[in-house]
Amino acid sequence: MSGAPGEGGFRGLRVVAFESRMAAEMSRLILSHGGVPVMAPSMREIPLEQNREALAFGERLLAGDHDILIALTGVGIRTLVQALETRHPRERIVEALRRVTLVCRGPKPVAALKGLGLEPGLTVPEPNTWVELLAALDAKAPVRGKRVAVQEYGVTNLELLQGLKERGAQVTRVPIYRWALPDDLAPLQAALRQVADGDVAVALFTNANQVENVMQVARETGLDGRLRAALGRAVVASVGPVASESLRNHGLAVDLEPQHPKMGPLVREASLRCHDILEAKRDGGGPVTMGAGGAGRPMVTETLRSPAPRTGGTALTGGAPPLTPALAQSPFMKACRREPTAVTPVWLMRQAGRYMREYRQIRARRGFLEMCRDPDLVTEITVYAVERLGVDAAIIFADLLLPVPGFGLGLAYAKGEGPAIDPPLRTGDDVKRLRTPDVEETVGYVFEAIRRTRRALRPDIPLLGFAGAPFTMASYMIEGGGSTHYVQTKSFFLREPQAWHDLLARITTATIAYVNGQIAAGAQAIQIFDTWVGCLTPEDYRAFVLPHTRTLIAGLTPGTPVIHFGTQTGHLLGDIRELGVGVIGLDWRLDLVDAWNGLGNLAVQGNLDPTLLFGPRGELVRRAQALLERVGGRPGHIFNLGHGILPHTPLDNVLALVDAVHDRAGA
Q1: Which of 374, 478, 492, 547 is 20 to 30 A from 51 in CA distance terms?
Q2: Greatest distance between any 2 Cα atoms in the chain
Q3: Would you state the pLDDT for residue 637?
């Protein structure tokens, strides 16, 4: 093939590649196939002697502190030994490895171990995923009570780590090969802008680290939404299953993988298939799916999104990331779209909380805010609740008030007490002194927790993000915590209406950024909690609250289902209906069907009284089934409590409730 752009398979298309070490070779390959290379180095190799985690593992390994080592990659095992050799003789390292059970995911780590004169104790069968790995351990080497080290090469496999912990293993991550962002980010940022602007037709990914770094830089430069939309219209080519898994974890569709997972075949097959894929996307308007090595015209699949986009406000362009088929067809997402479901989807507010013994054990050792700011712990808590209860959706473990410190206010939680905000806002001058929050700096840990949780959840379980509505957030800031009658709040907006509207405008702007950050990180739906808005008269709601909440809803990323939830809001439902949300949550004080009939063409969520979970199990099941009977399978019902699960609720009753909902078929 000629090396002149336009004469090969790409026929002059711009092709972006994120190679670093092999950048020159990748550029040459793209040129040789007729493409215009856009090179965007995305990684910088960290020297082995700087890999503290690997070196610390080596000390424990030599001391005999591990029972099992899981080798995920061949190059990772070789690199691990090379790192340890900077401190210890190879003979000692090999002898220490010989004393543990070596588990290999696939043939490459087997070959690496044999090169060291070692035989694996267990080899995982094809297709060598974490699912087969756990199944092989269950059958031949149970890990309960064992000290298990997991050799990682690149992106952490949270599903594997979670599965090991659930089986009773003491798990140690051994990230033995780290890639940092390049020292000079300018080429990568410039390339991402070209992609976001639609100037690039093909994107080539050759490992999972590239995906992670590319998406991180996209978020930090404010290009995340536009980049995702542009990649949905371009050809996304992945070198192999690991890179593809990372792309899908970020909600990006993979259009092709080469038959042989190497750089040369990747470029060649992309050049041969890109025009058919692009034509199919233009014709069908959706992502293209093609198996590895597949031939012929690619199949076009419908772009799977949530309900019709909202308009207005300051919503991100490009809409919500496309849903995978498994997520789009999940009962929860279908109910948000008011489509019939085989079962009524159920999730429960505060489904991860104090009623669970495991949660109480963690809470006894960690402060509440400390828990919320630990992405790994948030992932563990969120995923555990879903798997323990068998519900149809997860909601990220967090708190409404996490954005408050960004305004320059103090936030604290004392055990056994609610939140305390200091100093409370009492005058217009207090509002003027508020800082403008840097959302990434204030709650970036929430975004990271969502990314990790999305990777750890089952692929068919949607993840909800959430935030407090402007009124509820303002009331906490003014009262300094919770309240019964909201005297300070109501006095404030009646006494200083201009300062009140200024405060809610500030909260609204910050909340839009906060929620859109959650959506970009991997939340499939959002719940807006206006928990205390029912304390207002309809007149005050319309004058002091509704305009700001409407602005918030309009500013969220189009295509994302939004649930509005408040308590004692029966007198406000006509106004809440006008906010533009797709789902309205109802508390137990309302008759769900009567309220739904008044709302019309919307989905509803609710609304069993949470105190019923303290009563006889038979009565609980009867009440739940009576509610479902009354709904009659009407599409658009998401079963939930009328408020969160209360502390000390019997776990067995929660499990019985979920089973009762699932036992009755949906529409």
Answers
A1: 374
A2: 80
A3: 98
607 upstream amide cis, omega within 30 of 0: yes
Contact (Cβ atoms closer than 8 angstroms) between residue 217 and residue 189: yes
Comparing 418-432, 561-575, 598-612, which segment has the lowest mean pLDDT?
A: 418-432
Contact partners, residue 163, CB within 8 Å, separation at least 6 = 130, 134
How far does Cα 379 stand from its chain's mean position?
9
Q: Is the pLDDT of residue 285 over 90?
A: no
CA distance 354 to 359: 6
Residues 199-235: b if buried by 16+ CB within 10 A, e if exposed = ebbbbbbbbbbbbbbbbebbbeeebbbbbbbbbbebb
At residue 421, the 3 state secondary structure works out as strand
Supply the angle between the helices 107-115 and 74-84 in degrees, to the nearest 10: 30
Q: Which residues pair with 124 in a beta bridge?
A: 105
The enclosing H or E element of 491 equals helix 487-495
β-strands 101-105, 463-468: how paired?
Answer: unpaired
Q: What are 618-635's pLDDT values in tens digits?
A: 999 999 999 999 999 999
Report pLDDT digits (tens) over 185-243. 999 999 999 999 999 999 999 988 898 889 889 888 888 778 988 998 999 999 988 78
48-177: CATH, from 3.10.290.10, 3.40.50.2000, 3.40.50.10540, 3.40.50.10090: 3.40.50.10090
Kindly state the tokens that stand for 560. Answer: 């994302």
The identity of residue 281, as a single letter, is K
pLDDT, tens digit (0-9, with 9 covering 90-100), for 142-172: 999 999 999 986 556 766 887 898 889 999 9
**In Å, how far are 52, 533, 575, 600, 603 from 594, measured between CA atoms?**
61, 21, 16, 10, 13
Tell me whether the omega of the peptide bond preceding residue 616 falls within 30 degrees of 0, making it cis: no
In the DSSP assignment, the letter for residue 329 is T
- Under 8 Å between Cβ of 466 and 529: yes
Cβ atoms of 525 and 284 closer than 8 Å: no
Q: Which residues are annotated as catalytic?
A: 350, 354, 363, 399, 476
- Spatial separation of the C-alpha atoms in residues 41 and 20, rounded to whole Å: 4
Distances from the Cα of 41 to the Cα of 120, 210, 486, 571, 643, angstroms = 36, 9, 55, 57, 49
Q: Which CATH architecture has domain 14-44+181-300?
A: 3-Layer(aba) Sandwich (3.40)
- The closest alpha carbon to 201, from 27, 38, 19, belongs to 38
Q: How many residues does the chain have?
A: 667
Residue 639 has pLDDT above 90, yes or no: yes
- The CATH number of the structural domain formed by 325-352+406-663 is 3.20.20.210
- Distance, in Å, from the CA atom of 289 to the CA atom of 395, rounded to the nearest integer, reads 29
